[in-house]
């Protein structure tokens, strides 16, 4: 069986993400933990899609090029897709652009790199959105905890009968 080259991500690649993930909780104020769970589940599915993309990116003709698609871990815990040249002295879109502009690059390789880049851009956007949602869930939960802690310190305790406001003055 001949190697067909890079195959773009299709709807079926995202079926499990669409079927198993829901972000309905995004607009439900009191469901932060459910939203965070859904975002984590979606990020796990994106990880599977990332593995698929990396495997496909190693096909002919891309595997013979001086450019690699690789994981780029972020401090947030997310893994984004990054370009890196084999000499490891240039990375990112600049490395991709440099190779794309090379007159020696065969048209089939140029087309494969373009398809990979399109998928990489969308994948990184999706990972970024999920990472942002997770960060917002954590920050919102902390703010709610802080507000509850402050409110608990200001509310009258059951053993105090004549508490009038935060200062205790009548």
Describe the protein in words.
This protein has a domain at 32-137. The chain is 52% helix and 8% strand. It has helices at 15-20, 32-57, 92-100, 107-154, and strands spanning 67-73, 79-85. The protein has a two-stranded antiparallel ribbon. The chain is elongated, with a radius of gyration of 24 Å. The chain starts with 14 loop residues before the first helix and ends in a 16-residue tail after the last helix.
How would you concisely characterize the structure shown here?
The chain has 170 residues and is mostly helical. Helices cover 52% and strands 8% of the residues.
Observed structural traits:
2 strands; 8% strand; elongated; disordered C terminus; DUF3158; DUF3158 family protein
**From N to C, what is the helix and strand string?**
HHEEHH
SS class? mainly alpha
Indicate the radius of gyration in whole angstroms.
24 Å
Proportion of beta-strand residues? 5-15%
Mind sketching the topology for me?
Blueprint: H1 15-20, H2 32-57, E1 67-73, E2 79-85, H3 92-100, H4 107-154
Antiparallel strand pairs: 1-2
Helix pairs in contact: 2-4
């Amino acid at each position: 069986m001949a190697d067909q080259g890079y195959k773009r991500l299709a709807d079926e690649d995202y079926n499990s993400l669409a079927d198993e993930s829901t972000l309905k909780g995004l607009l439900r104020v009191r469901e932060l933990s459910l939203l965070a769970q859904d975002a984590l589940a979606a990020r796990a599915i994106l990880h599977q899609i990332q593995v698929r993309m990396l495997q496909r990116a190693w096909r002919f003709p891309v595997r013979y090029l001086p450019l690699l698609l690789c994981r780029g871990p972020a401090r947030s815990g997310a893994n984004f897709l990054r370009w890196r040249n084999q000499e490891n002295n240039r990375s990112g879109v600049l490395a991709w652009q440099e190779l794309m502009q090379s007159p020696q690059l065969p048209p089939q390789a140029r087309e494969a790199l373009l398809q990979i880049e399109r998928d990489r851009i969308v994948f990184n956007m999706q990972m970024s959105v999920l990472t942002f949602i997770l960060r917002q869930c954590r920050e919102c939960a902390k703010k709610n905890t802080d507000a509850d802690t402050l409110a608990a310190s200001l509310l009258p305790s059951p053993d105090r009968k004549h508490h009038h406001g935060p200062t205790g003055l009548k």
